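The material for today's practical consists of a large collection of protein records. Getting from the letters to the tokens is the skill we practise here. To make this concrete, we reproduce a full record directly below:
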Amino acid sequence: MAHRLSTITAPDGRALGVAQWGAPDGSPLFSLHGTPGSRFGRHPDEAALQRAGLRVVTYDRPGYGVSARLPGRRVVDCAADVTAIADELGIDRFAVTGGSGGGPHSLAVAARLGDRVERAECVVGAAPFDAEGLDWWAGMDPQNVREFHWALEGEQVLHEHLARLAEQDLERIAKDPSKILSDDWQLADADREKLSRPDLQVVFVEAMRAAYAAGVWGWVDDDLALLTGWGFDLDEIHVPVTIRYGTQDVLAPAGHGAWLAAHVPGAKVVVNPEAGHLSDPDTRIEELRELVAAG
């Protein structure tokens, strides 16, 4: 796609890094990256996106990649950024999906931009930290538990630790691109299998390097935003939403997906008993086709 990468200016003057993938005249779909992540997070087979007639828009959330930081941002603040990008790209109506840390952001867009969102999807997304009736930590990998406890200690503590982890990440993948996550993580076999795929390794490495290009403030602010009030209520959502999660997930455990499924109004729920945290590229295209077609 010509002009795949661009930078736009938000109404408050911040720069936002944007990328487009697939068919330029295809059905528009915003795909909101995980935590950490960047605009380079996308399906590994762009030709498949083109054949499916999908125009996928990704962007660096504030503090990631080339997007300027927005200190103290909340999950809901992404709706204004998506609006600015859609306006700049001449997109009136669109579908939106978000994976992992991007899942709550997708729900925020669905809640606040219901006049423009045709359909939304939350894939392995976390539930609110204060979710009533949910043991937020149950089933979560100890590495993730450690990270969020740093977040509870405050911004500076979290930044210090995440800067160290990011440096280790970049050193590790420079030696072995298959080591997107260290061996310390107790991942599901399904996730380990996906991390062994060369096509996904290319995308993960590119996305990770871009995510840390300006430091780790995007990652810091994502974690803090996930643990504080999201700034919107799930009851505000009046567009069709699909909630997807895997029962073997140790990053956003199945309890989170089940809680969201029970609290997002009218949600369609898809549970994969064999899946972990990472999506299967071989079936993902059809899921995205279904998402835009349903709108």
Observations:
- The first strand starts at residue 5 and ends at 9.
- The first helix runs from residue 46 to 51.
- The domain at 5-294 is CATH 3.40.50.1820 (Rossmann fold).
- The two ends are 24 Å apart (CA to CA).
